[in-house]
Specification:
By secondary structure, the chain is an alpha/beta fold. It has nine helices and five strands.
């Protein structure tokens, strides 16, 4: 099975690329989804976050107050690293389970979407790494469309490696400042190179 890691800067088209790959029949797991799962009520990570950052981060219904946590960790690098130390091992365990299940099921390939792929040292787990990219202007427009202020967007961008560095370390770059059709065609070319089409 070909293990494909999909990464890129925030707001640079990872979700669209993941959806297109899933449409082509390739199993995909997104670590942003896993990150939400590991902090659900009853999960050990939720208690660890409450102990590390304060019980006021847990809402009355027992769920994590994600915006309040983001306000803390995106303004303090030490606290962000502390949160990552809690979450990243648990998230990695889950996506490795997905890869193992796909391999056992005889899937020809599987994709894991990891925004912080290089930052977490996950590259050795993959046969091919794809990096999505667009201009900084488009990136900011996309983040503004999410309802984030310029300050919030810049904080999140600063928490990741520069996109050029990720592109340089990836085997393939997918330019997402194009129509969905051209985006899909780029992915088809990559899949052809891997013998998956």
């Amino acid at each position: 099975m070909i293990r494909i890691g999909l990464t890129g800067g925030i707001g640079m088209g990872k979700s669209t690329a993941a959806a297109l790959l899933a449409d082509k029949g390739i199993p995909v797991v997104d670590t942003d989804v896993l990150a939400r799962q590991v902090v659900e009520p009853g999960q050990p990570a939720l208690l660890e976050i409450a102990l590390a950052f304060g019980r006021e981060l847990i809402a009355a219904d027992g769920t994590l107050r994600r915006d309040a946590l983001a306000a803390i960790v995106f303004t303090d690098e030490a606290k962000r690293r502390q949160l990552e130390e809690i979450l990243h091992p648990k998230i990695r365990e889950r996506w490795l389970e997905h890869l193992a299940q796909w391999q056992a099921a005889g899937k020809p390939a599987g994709v894991v979407v990891i925004p912080l792929l290089f930052e977490t040292g996950a590259e050795q787990e993959f046969d091919r790494i794809l990096c999505t990219a667009c201009t900084a202007t488009t990136q900011m427009q996309r983040l503004t469309a999410r309802g984030w202020s310029e300050e919030q967007s810049l904080q999140r961008i600063a928490s990741q490696w520069p996109t050029q560095r990720k592109m340089n370390l990836s085997q393939s770059v997918v330019w997402t400042e194009v129509s969905r059709e051209i985006h899909s065609e780029q992915l088809n070319r990559i899949l052809n190179q891997l013998g998956l089409r």
